[in-house]
C-alpha cells in the first residue's frame, strides 16, 4: 500500500476510513454514527456503539488462543517471572473485578491505581475497564503531594496500591506516602486495596484498608461479565504536566481508543497475534497504558511487563528477555538506549536477537548518535515516534505496516493517518513553508484515541489546547517543529514550561511550587537544561530569605540537599532538580514575568535572546556567576 494515499484517505474521508478501522475490534452493538463533531473541539467517535476494552484485550482472545501467553511479568528486583495465558489473565481480571464490585465500585466510579510494575497493576486496570470504572494510574515514583492533588481531582471510590516498589534491589515503601497523600487530600477514598509483596511493613487502617490476597481467595471462582459501554464513556484519566502547577486529567474514551490502538498496532507496530511485544516503559505513563497493557493485548500479542533497571543484574537483561521470549517488537526511550550505550557491547552481543524485527523509541528527541549506534548493534530498523499523553498514539512516525518507507535521522517521521498536522508561525498564525520553524498543531477533529477533554473541566480543555491562536481553533501540541520538503518533521522542543527528563514529562511550575514551600526560599525559577544522558535535567535558581545559611559552601550544600529533600517528599525523586543554585535576584521582565528561556539559554551556554524587556540585566550576570561557583 502507498502511505501517501492511505494518509490522504484518512484526511479526505475520515468517516469512511475510521468505519473500516472500527472492524478491527469487537463490538457488542455497532455504532450509529462514525463521528459527531457538532460541538467542536469535542469529537465523539463511533456514537451509539457498545464495546469494552477488557473484552477486546482479553476475552476476545480466550476464544481462539486462550492458552497462549498474554502477560509476562518479569521482575529482576524480586527475581520473579510469571507468564499468564489469556485464560489465566481473564481469571485474574475477573477476580480483581469481583473484589472491586464487592468494595462498592460501580460504572463511572474512579479507581486510583498507585502501583509498581507488577501483574496486579495490569489486572486492576483491566478489571476497571471490564466493569466500566474509570482508572487513574499514578506513577509509582510520585510522592505524597503529587498523589494528593490527583486524589482530590479524581475523587476515587477506591485506591489500589501495594506495600512497596523496588529499585536496584532496595524496597521503596509506598504505604506511608499513600497514607500521607490521603491525609493531605479532601476526597478520602472509602477503600484501599493493598497488594502485600512482603517487601515493606505496612499498617492497615481498620475499616478502610483491605488485603488483595485475602479477597482474591474469596473471589477465586468469580465470573464477572463484561459491562458493555457506549463508545464515548470514559475509560481512564491520566494526569500530565503543563504550564500551571496543577496537573491536567487527560480523559479518554472507550471505543475510539480501542480502535486507535488496534490500528496503530497494525500499521505502526506491525503486530501479529501470538508474537511478543516488549515495551520498557511504566504503567504510570501513557506508553504503559497504550503499549504495555492495552495495545499489545488488543492485537492478541503477549506483552512483557518488566520491573527493574536496564542494567541489573547486568546490561544484557533486556536482550536476554528478547531472546527468551522471542520478542518481535520492542518499544523504549532514547535515554534508556543512551544508558546501555555506556555499557560494554558484549552484554547485548551475547544473546540471540534474531526474533526482533524493529525497535520503537519515543518520549523525547532521538539524537542521531544514539539512533545509529543502536541500529548498528541490533541490525533492525529504529523507528522514532512522536506523540503525547493527550493523543495516546503516534502523531508522527513511519508506518512500516502500511508502506516500508525510509526513516530519516533526527526526524520522528511524517504525519500519521488521521492527524491533520500543521506548523503555524507563532506570531502571525500563518502556515509555515518547508524548513520554517513553527508551532506544531493539529486541526480538529482529533482522530479516535485522543483525549476527550480535561477530566471535569471542559473549559480547561478548550482554553489550554485550542486557544493558542486567536480566531483559529487548532489543537496545540506546545512543541516547536520544522518540516522538510518531503513532509518529514523535526521536533525542536517545547514552547511552554514543560521539561522532559529521561522521557518523563514534568512541569517546571510544579517543581517551583514545591521548592517555594521550603521555609528559607522566597523565590525560585526552574528550567530544563540540556543533558547528554537524560536529554534534559531540571536546574533550580533560588532566592533565600535568610542569607546567613548560604554564607559558606557547606551551608549552600546543606540547603541544596534540604530543597532536594522537599521535592523528593512532595513530588518524588523523578522531579528532583539536578542542582539548586542561590542567586540574589531572578531575571524578570519589567512586568514581573520570569525569563525562564533566558536562564535556560545561559545554562546551555547560548545567547539569552531578546532582553529589551528585562528589568535588571545584572540578574543574568548573577545567574552566570552562580553557575561558575
Ligand atoms: O515534547 C514532546 C516530547 O514529549 C512530549 C509528550 O510527552 P508525554 O505526554 O509524556 O508523552 C510521551 C508519549 C510518547 C511531547 O510534547 N516527545 C515525545 N515523543 C517525542 C518527543 N520529542 C521528540 N521526539 C519524540 N519522538
Structural summary, described in words:
The protein is α/β, with parallel strands linked by helices and 629 residues long. It has a domain at 500-628: ANL, C-terminal domain (GMP Synthetase, Chain A, domain 3, 2-Layer Sandwich), CATH 3.30.300.30. The protein has 19 helices and 32 strands. The strands form nine sheets. It has an eight-stranded mixed β-sheet with strand order 12-11-8-6-7-14-15-25, with helices on both faces. It has a seven-stranded mixed β-sheet with strand order 5-4-17-16-18-19-20, with helices on both faces. It has a four-stranded antiparallel β-sheet with strand order 23-24-26-27, with no helix packed on it. A hairpin with a 2-residue loop joins β28 and β29. α3 (53-65) crosses α5. The longest helix is centred in the C-terminal third of the chain and has 18 residues, at 553-570. The chain is globular, with a radius of gyration of 24 Å. The protein starts with a helix and ends with a helix. The model has no long low-confidence stretch (mean pLDDT 96). The site of adenosine-5'-monophosphate-propyl ester has 21 residues, from α10, β20, β26 and β27. Residues 240, 285-287, 362-365, 384-389, 412, 477, 479, 491, 494, 500, 505 line the site of adenosine-5'-monophosphate-propyl ester.
Amino acid at each position: 500500500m502507498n502511505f501517501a494515499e492511505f494518509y490522504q484517505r484518512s484526511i479526505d474521508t475520515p468517516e469512511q476510513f475510521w468505519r473500516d478501522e472500527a472492524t478491527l475490534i469487537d463490538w457488542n452493538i455497532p455504532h450509529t454514527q462514525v463521528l459527531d463533531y457538532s460541538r467542536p473541539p469535542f469529537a465523539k467517535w463511533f456514537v451509539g456503539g457498545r464495546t469494552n476494552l477488557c473484552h477486546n484485550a482479553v476475552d476476545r482472545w480466550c476464544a481462539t488462543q486462550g492458552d497462549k501467553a498474554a502477560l509476562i511479568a518479569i521482575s529482576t528486583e524480586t527475581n520473579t517471572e510469571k507468564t499468564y495465558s489469556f485464560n489465566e489473565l481473564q481469571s485474574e481480571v475477573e477476580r480483581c473485578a469481583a473484589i472491586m464490585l464487592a468494595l462498592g465500585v460501580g460504572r463511572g466510579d474512579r479507581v486510583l491505581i498507585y502501583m509498581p510494575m507488577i501483574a496486579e497493576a495490569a489486572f486492576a486496570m483491566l478489571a476497571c475497564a471490564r466493569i466500566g470504572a474509570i482508572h487513574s494510574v499514578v506513577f509509582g515514583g510520585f510522592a505524597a503531594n503529587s498523589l494528593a492533588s490527583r486524589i482530590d481531582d479524581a475523587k476515587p471510590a477506591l485506591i489500589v496500591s501495594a506495600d512497596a516498589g523496588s529499585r536496584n534491589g532496595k524496597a521503596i515503601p509506598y504505604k506511608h506516602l499513600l497514607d500521607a497523600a490521603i491525609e493531605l487530600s479532601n476526597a478520602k477514598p472509602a477503600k484501599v486495596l493493598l497488594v502485600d509483596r512482603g517487601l515493606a511493613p505496612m499498617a492497615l487502617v481498620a475499616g478502610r484498608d483491605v488485603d488483595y490476597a485475602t479477597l482474591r481467595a474469596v473471589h477465586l471462582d468469580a465470573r464477572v461479565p463484561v459491562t458493555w459501554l457506549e463508545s464515548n464513556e470514559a475509560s481512564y484519566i491520566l494526569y500530565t504536566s503543563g504550564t500551571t502547577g496543577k496537573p491536567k486529567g487527560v480523559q479518554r474514551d472507550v471505543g475510539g481508543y480501542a480502535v486507535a490502538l488496534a490500528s496503530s498496532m497494525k500499521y505502526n507496530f506491525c503486530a501479529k497475534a501470538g508474537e511478543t511485544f516488549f515495551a520498557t516503559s511504566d504503567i504510570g505513563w501513557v506508553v504503559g497504558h497504550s503499549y504495555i497493557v492495552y495495545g499489545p493485548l488488543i492485537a492478541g500479542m503477549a506483552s512483557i511487563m518488566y520491573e527493574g533497571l536496564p542494567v541489573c543484574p547486568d546490561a544484557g537483561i533486556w536482550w536476554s528477555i528478547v531472546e527468551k521470549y522471542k520478542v518481535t517488537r520492542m518499544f523504549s526511550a532514547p535515554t534508556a538506549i543512551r544508558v546501555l550505550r555506556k555499557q560494554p557491547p558484549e552484554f547485548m552481543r551475547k544473546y540471540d536477537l534474531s526474533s526482533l524485527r524493529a525497535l520503537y523509541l519515543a518520549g523525547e528527541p532521538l539524537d542521531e548518535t544514539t539512533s545509529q549506534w543502536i541500529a548498528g548493534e541490533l541490525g533492525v530498523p529504529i523507528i522514532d515516534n512522536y506523540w503525547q499523553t493527550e493523543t495516546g498514539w503516534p502523531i508522527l512516525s513511519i508506518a512500516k505496516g502500511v508502506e516500508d518507507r525510509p526513516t530519516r535521522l533526527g526526524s520522528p517521521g511524517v504525519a500519521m493517518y488521521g492527524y491533520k498536522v500543521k506548523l503555524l508561525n507563532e506570531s502571525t498564525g500563518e502556515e509555515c513553508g518547508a524548513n520554517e520553524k513553527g508551532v506544531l498543531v493539529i486541526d480538529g477533529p482529533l482522530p479516535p484515541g485522543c483525549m476527550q477533554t480535561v477530566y471535569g473541566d471542559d473549559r480547561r480543555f478548550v482554553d489550554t489546547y485550542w486557544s493558542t491562536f486567536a480566531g483559529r481553533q487548532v489543537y496545540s501540541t506546545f512543541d516547536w517543529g520544522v518540516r522538510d520538503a518531503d513532509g518529514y518533521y523535526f521536533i525542536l522542543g517545547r514552547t511552554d514550561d514543560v521539561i522532559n527528563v529521561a522521557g518523563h514529562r514534568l512541569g517546571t511550575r510544579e517543581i517551583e511550587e514545591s521548592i517555594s514551600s521550603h521555609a528559607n526560599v522566597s523565590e525560585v525559577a526552574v528550567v530544563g537544561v540540556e543533558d547528554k544522558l537524560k536529554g534534559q535535567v531540571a536546574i533550580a535558581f533560588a532566592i533565600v530569605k535568610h542569607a546567613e545559611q548560604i554564607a559558606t559552601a557547606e551551608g549552600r550544600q546543606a540547603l541544596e540537599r534540604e530543597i532536594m529533600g522537599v521535592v523528593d517528599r512532595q513530588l518524588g525523586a523523578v522531579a528532583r532538580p539536578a542542582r539548586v543554585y542561590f542567586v540574589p535576584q531572578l531575571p524578570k521582565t519589567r512586568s514581573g514575568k520570569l525569563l525562564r528561556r533566558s536562564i535556560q539559554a545561559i545554562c546551555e551556554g547560548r545567547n539569552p535572546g531578546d532582553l529589551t524587556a528585562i528589568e535588571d540585566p545584572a540578574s543574568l550576570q548573577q545567574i552566570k556567576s552562580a553557575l561558575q561557583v
